[in-house]
Design brief:
Rossmann fold; two-stranded antiparallel sheet; 10 helices; 40% helix
Length: 245
């Protein structure tokens, strides 16, 4: 009987998620640099590729590492890499064109998983470029926001229609605090790049934290699971629990 989840590539993550990542929805992994986002998606990609399933891996930040794949899967990594279609994008326009071709690629290759590592990377750079122009260009800023919303809509429709999981990664940033707030002990708020747009389209959200090397995953949103946390560590072969909360 067909399952409604795919393996996360880690026994401990699968147990924590009651089987892995859900099909038919977008799951977002959000966190600061070095929190483990790329390791999470590489594990899922390798798990599917080892089974002979095809994976589309969209890399906007240069985080895909053949050496890391070799650490995870061993000496058969070259065969496994044949099942991972890597798209390395360098700007927002390339990202837009790649999403326009995504639907046809899915049907042609019988894809079982889509990963976008750094969904907001080029969006943020494009938006910054628009805002840095003198007086800004409000119409151009609106266009960039519409393009990103369209890309998320495409991912959601493909996922739901083809019954495959989509995993995206995203960054977070902290609020700027005045010196007075710092003296008062006010803690900076943590915000998601892209804000409500990503929250709306992502039916599952996992926040990743890195506190002086101690990593934690927090399940913030899920259709069937409660909010919960997992302390974890990253080793050569993957992700392992450090303790349950």
């Amino acid at each position: 009987m067909e399952t409604d989840r795919i393996s996360a590539g880690s026994f401990d993550l699968n147990k924590w998620l009651y089987g892995g990542y859900e099909k038919g929805i977008i799951t977002m992994l959000a966190g600061p640099p070095a929190s483990g986002k790329t390791n999470f998606v590489l594990l899922a990609a390798c798990s599917q590729a080892k089974k002979g399933n095809k994976v589309i891996f969209v890399d906007t930040e240069g985080g895909f590492s053949v050496e890391r794949v070799k650490q995870i899967v061993g000496e058969d990594y070259k065969e496994i890499l044949k099942n991972i279609f890597l798209l390395e994008l360098t700007n927002f326009e390339e990202q837009k064109k790649a999403f326009m071709r995504l639907d046809n690629r899915i049907k042609k290759e019988h894809i079982s998983l889509i990963i976008v590592d750094g969904m907001a990377m080029h969006y943020r750079l494009e938006l910054g470029a628009m805002k840095s122009k003198e007086f800004g260009n409000e119409n151009e800023i609106k266009r960039v926001n519409r393009d990103l919303a369209w890309q998320m809509k495409i991912l959601a429709e493909i996922s739901r229609k083809e019954k495959i999981p989509v995993i995206i990664t995203n960054q977070v940033y902290t609020d700027f605090l005045s010196e007075e707030d710092r003296r008062k002990g006010v803690k900076p708020g943590v915000n998601l790049v892209g804000g409500d747009l990503f929250k709306y389209w992502s039916k599952a959200i996992i926040e990743l934290k890195n506190d002086n090397g101690k990593k934690k995953a927090i399940l913030l949103k899920h259709r069937s699971l409660p909010e919960k946390e997992l302390n974890f560590e990253i080793r050569n072969k993957g992700i392992f629990r450090r303790g349950w909360i």
